């Protein structure tokens, strides 16, 4: 049944390029690592485009069987619409962050190699490889290995600065990530015991609603929710993400949590039988709703800019869970709208949040601090960064035209269309609260600097332009006609004519 | 039959006791000793479950290498009793955690009992097609062929881990020597052991890696034994870890995964499939990759035990 | 009930013990130990599963065995990283737990 499809070799390229690049960058070290990373992450954008184009052209998932061994004996690499879209998003954000980091993470001219620079460039490539493995993996155990790769890469980026204040929150992050992985692994053991395979496309439609299967799904969901910092497991995320250098924060908040999200979809949409999934989805969505409200309210009260942005991540992740009861509701049109809405939220948040963290980092550098009550003068010193922060904020609030608006609009209308109006109320409330904290920051940056404050330091345009570019992409996603997102529906169970 | 039952029951009880001791031991050091015992007993359970390859891995990596790392840290993390006491959750949290964990344990136990007694899995096909791979040990065939991508990514995880651990060191020691320094032991049991054991251990390690193709054993287990011999010599002050800037060390670390990758690409060119073992080159290529992997695993494990750079070269 | 089921129940008990330890033990080193007990329980469940998915003529399914070998090596690497971080934290701040200090609650870290 499963076989390597035409263009399947692209998936090998997507995986091998960054992974081999990381190994080589580690051996070569120093400036060579930086050059290699920039080259390969640039090529990664091309690979991402090629994979998406191939999936679109085929109208069906593209598959590669390493070694030619078909599941259940072997394991498959699969790019369906979700995987292709996330791969492309990842490639763009990673390349942008790599360009941004050229200034902050260059090897100093008087040294052959420094710890932070080598770790930055090697782990950028490592992150690219881990995310490719997480999006393209077709086997739930192989995805466990991908999750662990991701943990190492993400954690090393988070600890890049080696600040004393950092280790406690990053170590807590590591413990949560490890517990999440091991609970996920426990679920795969039960699934293998029940069905003799861990290929999620083979499991689809074959699972029973018995105790081992349901417990497996519950454990995997709990583990992935811990990794995504879903309320009430969210407390580790803000200090861990805010404590990292700006480039790392952008990747952690924008991309790393999305890998767990894609795995969550694999479990809920592919593996879990529809009836229990339908019954349990509102519970998960309720936690998502709580995350939106609590995360936004706490963000509103933050004294530090980076922590504010990190709490906003907690809230924005909540939206991703709202899609589940809508996609599983049974009505074909609701499902397809909610699916697109959820994935567009994942994508536009990746761009917007990366832009926001980069901008926040630039603002903090220019002012010498990131106290939200004293941001005056930032508007003159780093105007493009402030503009990027504002544009990204529009997308997070859900103001048209922006990718965030389209995403939230789709979720809202499918909630109303399906009579689940309470989710719509949460979406609107979350938008208002988001407007509150974004306004607080923007109003502060436009104000005149306090008289006794040191003059803000103007910064070069390059890194600001990167932040602005990412913010513009998050806005531009809202300008595209809905029909252009047909890609994400490819391979979704229940989507018309696209069953695996 | 009854003997089997007695044996399994005793092993299970001992494992449970070791686990309880690990959790409740009065000092961290005693807890780690309990954990090493737990690992060794667990490898007995693996033998009883007819998984000898896993038993070897559990004993070497799970109990041995993990144990050494934890012992080292138990020795170094001595203070902080007051902080621990202040941060220990109260009775309510403990009760809640107990209920949660107990509920999960109960659910899992019921789920294990509810699993189907026999499930058609890929094992029959794995056995039937092992001749295509040329590996008599089915576990090795899964690791190197059927699920080669898992193994490739896992070997890459080890490289990530080494760089991640190194990067935890302070900036000023980058390029320096990792790990604590041990005084050179001139005589005493450790010195004797460190001089006499490695030659034997190296032979055993290579043997375990070599026989892995057809009998229980393999690169992870063999590599761990090799790493253990080096760690022993390091602990006795006989050898010094290389600088983290040394390109040769980095080359050894990536040789396994990179070799696996290159062989995989060769498979794509010759056999039309990435990670296929090309029929024309057959077993020699596979053994070459296994050898490189053994070397890289040994280096990675040893360097992970040693830790981040702590002094200048 | 047979031998493998006994180990299955043991695995379930180890998972419960490990999870309990992870929540109630404050010291990082104890948490890392509990994580390893939890992992040991999960691996044992794979071992039990391997007995059930084995066809006639094979004592145990090699596929879950290979997964456990991979899992053990990955868990070792994770432990090494956690220990390295814990030691570094101790060196710099003398802290041995990851609970947030009381003064950092207001988000002013």
TrEMBL record, chain A:
Transmembrane annotation, as ranges: 6-29, 36-56, 76-97, 118-137, 143-161, 173-195, 215-237, 249-271, 277-300, 307-330, 350-369, 381-400, 420-439, 466-490
Subcellular location: Cell membrane; Membrane
Keyword Transmembrane helix part of the UniProt annotation: yes
InterPro entries in the record: CPA3_Na-H_Antiporter_D, NADH_UbQ_OxRdtase, ND/Mrp_TM
Bilayer topology annotation: Multi-pass membrane protein
GO terms, molecular function: NADH dehydrogenase (ubiquinone) activity
Keywords: Cell membrane, Membrane, Transmembrane, Transmembrane helix
Superkingdom to which the source organism belongs: Bacteria
GO annotations of cellular component type: plasma membrane
Domain named NADH:quinone oxidoreductase/Mrp antiporter transmembrane: residues: 138-433
Main location: membrane
A biological-process GO annotation: ATP synthesis coupled electron transport
PANTHER family per record: NA(+)_H(+) ANTIPORTER SUBUNIT D1, NADH DEHYDROGENASE
Family as reported in the entry's similarity comment: Belongs to the CPA3 antiporters (TC 2.A.63) subunit D family.
Descriptive protein name: NADH-quinone oxidoreductase subunit J
Organism: Roseicella frigidaeris
Automatic annotation (TrEMBL), chain B:
Keyword Transmembrane helix: yes
GO cellular component: plasma membrane
Membrane topology: Multi-pass membrane protein
Pfam families in the cross-refs: MbhD (PF13244), MnhB (PF04039)
Domain Na+/H+ antiporter MnhB subunit-related protein: 190-307
Sections of the chain in a coiled coil: none
InterPro entries, A to Z: CPA3_antiporter_subunitB, MnhB, MrpA_C/MbhD
Segments passing through the bilayer: 5-23, 54-75, 95-115, 152-169, 190-210, 222-239, 251-270, 285-306
Keywords per UniProt: Cell membrane, Membrane, Transmembrane, Transmembrane helix
Entry's localization field: Cell membrane
Taxonomy, superkingdom: Bacteria
Acyltransferase in keyword set: no
Annotated ranges, domain MrpA C-terminal/MbhD: 13-78
Chief location category: membrane
Annotated family: Belongs to the CPA3 antiporters (TC 2.A.63) subunit B family.
Protein's name in the database: Sodium:proton antiporter
Organism encoding this protein: Roseicella frigidaeris
Species classification: Bacteria, Pseudomonadati, Pseudomonadota, Alphaproteobacteria, Acetobacterales
From TrEMBL, chain C:
Family: Belongs to the CPA3 antiporters (TC 2.A.63) subunit C family.
Keyword Nucleus (UniProt): no
Cited Pfam families: Oxidored_q2
Membrane topology: Multi-pass membrane protein
Protein origin, superkingdom: Bacteria
Principal subcellular localization: membrane
Keywords linked to the UniProt accession: Cell membrane, Membrane, Transmembrane, Transmembrane helix
InterPro entries documented for this protein: CPA3_antiporter_subunitC, NUOK/Mnh_C1-like
Organism: Roseicella frigidaeris
Compartments (UniProt record): Cell membrane
Entry GO CC: plasma membrane
Protein's UniProt name: Na+/H+ antiporter subunit C
Chain segments annotated as transmembrane: 6-28, 35-54, 66-87
């Amino acid at each position: 049944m499963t076989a390597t499809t035409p263009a399947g070799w692209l998936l090998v390229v997507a995986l091998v390029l960054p992974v081999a690049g990381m190994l080589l960058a580690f051996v070569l070290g120093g400036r060579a690592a930086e050059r290699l990373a920039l080259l390969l992450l640039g090529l990664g954008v091309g690979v991402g485009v090629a994979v998406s184009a191939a999936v679109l052209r085929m109208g069906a998932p593209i598959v590669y069987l390493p070694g030619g061994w078909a599941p259940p004996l072997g394991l498959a690499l699969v790019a369906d619409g979700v995987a292709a879209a996330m791969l492309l998003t990842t490639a763009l954000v990673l390349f942008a962050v790599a360009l941004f980091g050229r200034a902050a993470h260059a090897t100093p001219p008087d040294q052959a190699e420094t710890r932070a620079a080598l770790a930055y460039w090697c782990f950028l490539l490592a992150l690219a490889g881990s995310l490719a493995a997480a999006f393209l993996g077709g086997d739930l155990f192989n995805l466990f290995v991908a999750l662990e790769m991701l943990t190492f890469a993400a954690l090393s980026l988070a600890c890049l600065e080696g600040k004393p204040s950092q280790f406690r929150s990053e170590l807590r992050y590591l413990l949560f990530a490890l517990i999440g992985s091991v609970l996920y692994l426990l679920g795969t053991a039960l699934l293998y015991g029940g069905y003799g395979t861990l290929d999620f496309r083979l499991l689809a439609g074959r699972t029973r609603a018995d105790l081992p299967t349901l417990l497996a799904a519950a454990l995997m969901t709990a583990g992935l929710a811990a990794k995504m910092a879903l309320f009430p497991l969210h407390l580790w995320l803000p200090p861990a993400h805010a404590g990292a250098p700006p480039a790392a924060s952008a990747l952690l908040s924008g991309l790393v949590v999305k890998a767990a999200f894609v795995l969550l979809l694999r479990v809920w949409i592919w593996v879990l039988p529809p009836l229990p999934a339908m019954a349990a989805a509102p519970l998960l969505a309720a936690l998502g709703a709580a995350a939106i409200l609590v995360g936004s309210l706490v963000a509103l009260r933050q004294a530090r800019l980076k922590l504010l942005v990190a709490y906003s991540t907690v809230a924005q992740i909540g939206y991703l869970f709202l899609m589940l009861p809508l996609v599983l509701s049974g009505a074909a049109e609701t499902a397809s709208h909610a699916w697109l809405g959820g994935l567009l939220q994942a994508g536009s948040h990746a761009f917007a949040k990366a832009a926001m963290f980069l901008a926040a980092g630039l603002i903090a550098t220019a002012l010498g601090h990131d106290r939200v009550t004293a941001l005056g003068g930032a508007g003159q010193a780093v105007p493009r960064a402030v503009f990027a922060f504002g544009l990204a904020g529009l997308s997070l609030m859900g103001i048209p035209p922006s990718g965030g608006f389209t995403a939230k609009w789709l979720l809202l209308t499918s909630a109303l269309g399906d009579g689940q109006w309470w989710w719509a109320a949460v979406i609107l409330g979350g938008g208002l609260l988001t407007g509150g904290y974004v306004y607080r920051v923007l109003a502060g940056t436009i104000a005149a600097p306090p008289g006794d404050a040191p003059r803000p330091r103007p910064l070069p345009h390059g890194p600001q332009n990167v932040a602005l570019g990412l913010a513009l992409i998050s806005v531009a996603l809202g300008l595209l006609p809905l029909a252009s997102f047909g890609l994400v529906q490819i391979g979704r169970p229940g989507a018309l004519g696209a069953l695996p | 039959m009854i003997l089997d039952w007695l044996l399994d029951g005793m092993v299970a009880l001992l494992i449970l006791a070791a686990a309880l001791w690990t959790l409740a031991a009065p000092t961290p050091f005693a807890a780690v000793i309990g954990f090493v015992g737990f690992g060794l007993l667990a490898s007995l359970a693996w033998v009883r479950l007819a998984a000898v390859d896993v038993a070897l891995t559990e004993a070497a990596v799970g109990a041995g290498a993990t144990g050494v790392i934890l012992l080292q840290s138990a020795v170094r993390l001595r203070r902080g009793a007051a902080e621990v006491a202040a941060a220990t959750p109260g009775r309510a949290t403990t009760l809640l955690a107990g209920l949660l964990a107990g509920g999960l344990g109960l659910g899992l136990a019921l789920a294990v009992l509810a699993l189907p007694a026999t499930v058609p899995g890929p094992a029959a096909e794995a056995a039937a097609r092992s001749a295509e791979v040329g590996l008599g040990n089915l576990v090795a065939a899964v690791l190197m062929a059927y699920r080669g991508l898992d193994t490739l990514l896992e070997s890459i995880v080890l490289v990530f881990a080494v760089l991640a651990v190194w990067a935890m060191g302070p900036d000023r020691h980058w390029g320096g020597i990792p790990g604590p320094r041990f005084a050179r032991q001139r005589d005493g049991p450790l010195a004797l052991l460190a001089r006499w054991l490695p030659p034997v251990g190296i032979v055993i390690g290579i043997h375990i890696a070599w026989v892995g193709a057809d009998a229980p054993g393999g690169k992870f287990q063999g590599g761990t034994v090799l790493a253990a011999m080096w760690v022993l010599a390091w602990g006795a002050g006989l050898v010094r870890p290389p600088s983290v800037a040394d390109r040769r060390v980095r080359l050894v670390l990536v040789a396994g995964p990179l070799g696996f990758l290159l062989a995989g690409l060769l498979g794509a060119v010759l056999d039309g499939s990435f990670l296929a073992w090309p029929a024309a080159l057959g077993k020699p290529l596979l053994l070459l990759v296994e050898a490189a992997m053994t070397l890289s695993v040994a280096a990675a494990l040893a360097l992970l035990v040693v830790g981040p750079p702590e002094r200048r070269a | 009930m047979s031998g493998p089921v006994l180990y299955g129940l043991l695995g379930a008990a180890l998972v419960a013990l490990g999870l309990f330890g992870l929540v109630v033990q404050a010291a990082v080193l104890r948490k890392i130990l509990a994580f390893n007990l939890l992992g040991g329980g999960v691996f044992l469940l794979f071992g039990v599963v391997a007995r059930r998915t084995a066809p006639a003529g094979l004592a145990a399914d090699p596929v879950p065995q290979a997964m456990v070998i991979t899992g053990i090596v990955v868990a070792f690497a994770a432990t090494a990283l956690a220990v390295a971080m814990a030691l570094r934290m101790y060196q710099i701040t003398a802290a041995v737990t990851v609970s947030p200090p009381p003064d950092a609650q207001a988000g002013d870290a």
